[in-house]
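hi support,

uploading two proteins for the ticket. first:
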Amino acid sequence: MAEVIQILILGMALGGVYALMGSGLSLVFGVMRIVNLAHPVLIMAGAYVAYWAARLYGIDPLLTLPIAAVILAATGVILYKLVFEREARSAKYSEMTVLLTFALAMVLEGALGTAFTNTQRVTSPDYATDAFFIGDIFIPKGQLYAGIVSLAIISALALFLKYSRFGYAIRATTQNREAAELLGVNVNLVGLVSFAIGIGLAGAAGSLVSFVFSFFPAKHWEWIAVLMSLVVLGGMGSIFGTVLASFILAVVAAFIGAYFGATWSTLTFFVALFVVLLVRPQGIFGEKPELA
């Protein structure tokens, strides 16, 4: 029983981090229909912000988190204006963004690799290698803190979307872009701000990733299937679904990793993505597309 509880705790802690990593991707798709394959490399960029802040100035990654979020949000504004805004009304916009963001991911990977090389990095605050002990059960402080901070950020996002006036506009645009525009919503501004928030969340996640996982520019390719499995299982565009899927898959992966090895743990996300696309492509909370 202690072993089961131990694995469950580890899975739940990582699930919070996965949820933050996937929430920005889900938000951007829900509002703008952008399938952002560059989201993982932007998370890597956020991790580098935290890494160099810690190395040069000794700033704790948790304190760097808002800085990384703001820097990446500003980057998101620039990317949206340069790459995504022009064809936002195209009927084939989602399909186009797959190619655009794939190319963008390669460009950003090259830029990060040139600037920082492909050496594996990790920030090392004291709590990253420490743990709380409750009898025979240990709780890694790094994963616990990262999971708690992730859930706090997601909760703040949920409150913003539910109760703020701009949150109403974002939810209206997500549900029906044309109807929202007819009712006076500035969908262009909503798209810009939503994209900035989504990329800002990637920066925040990167700051946490910097001490939970090792990272290097090319590692973003490993994260694409993980994040897509979370978003697809939860339902494309559903932040709550992404959070729920993150905890489900993180716990399942933790048990598989404990009993069958780390390689099979990673495979969990690939298998989940494959099965969901075959059995229920709209995910848990996604809407089934209507046939013409």
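and the second one:
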Amino acid sequence: MKLLEVFFAQNFRNISGNHIYFAGIENDLIYQHRFFIENMQQFKSLDYVKNSYNKRICQIAEERKTGKKIIGTLCLFVPDEIIFAAGADRVILCGGKNDTISIAEQYLPRNICPLVKSSFGSIVNNGCSGVKSCSHFSMVDMIVAENTCDSKKKMYELLGDYVSTYVLDLPQNPDNPEAIKYFLRELEKFKGVMEQLTGNRVTVEKLKKEIESSNETRQLIHKLYDLRKVDPPLVSGLDVLKIMQKQYFLSPAELKRSARMLIEEAEQVKMDLGHKPRIMISGCPMAGGNTKVPEIIENRGGVIVVEESCTGTRSFWDLVDENKDPMIALAERYLKIPCSCMTPNDRRINNILELVREFKVDGVVYYTLQFCHGYNIEKYKVQQALKKAGIPMLAIETDYGDSDIEQIGLRVDAFMEMLS
């Protein structure tokens, strides 16, 4: 791999500003992609999403005045349906910005995941540092966390000193026959915590209503992803990411509205700008504010058609069975999420191969955050499975900083040339 990277690096030349091109193909790959980007549909719905933050903050502030409780979450394993059925609202607290990491490093080791540090720094930031955190981080009444990776669960032990924190425990082997029973007991305890916090009883009827609503959202996002199955896709990966990063911040009603608007606009796209390398991103989540790698990919000649991540298919792929007891159905659905904290995790390998076929993927960019040991270790098994399927893979390990942008760009350029 090192020799291949050296070969590619020696055959690059800089011909214009900061854009790096392969010698001899600047009028092919890069030119075609620039034409593709400039002629992509500019969706009004994305302006609506971009400008939604202040409106949502005002909504949360009004809810708090009426006594409604606001729950902060950091992971897909926490069922929104139980939170909403208890009459509370929910916002995601995953940090995607580099600014608050220095604050977190006053408490946490430097050599842990930047998402964990960014989240912790945003929550405990008291403003003395001069760094401004997003307003919603300070507006929650309780954080509902989950027992996933080591860095997160140890961080939660410190987090409880700053805001009320409840940790939902998870079985680590989802295929164990006892796993569903254990997780169901954990969800029942969580339901009791929510009832005590809000003073509202979580009934079967309320749960069924919220399950139907959440399934409707998941089906809408499925429809949005279906628009990416055509070649070329009707909507870019960056445009979809803007929606997906807001899915746990916006209210369910506003998320549905935004998704419908984007779907309606994208369905009107008629242009055929030719084939671009169809890329899947697989690996770590990309919290709001973190778009570095997708921007590099789509600015360097690829088009992202699917994400196997928590800000991608893991968040919506499986529906909750509406014909079962709601608590059992929730336990079954959420335990299907193929997070790298689970072991063994063959379900994730199978999902990746299924998505490769369904979205006609040409190559996979395996994205990991620095010091995310779970996804970094699983990289080997994913690579072997993709190699057997004849699908090239590029592994990128990075953080939230911009010091490696050019280096990543060179490697992505080489990968796109290989796929083209």
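thanks. also noticed: The longest helix spans residues 204-226.
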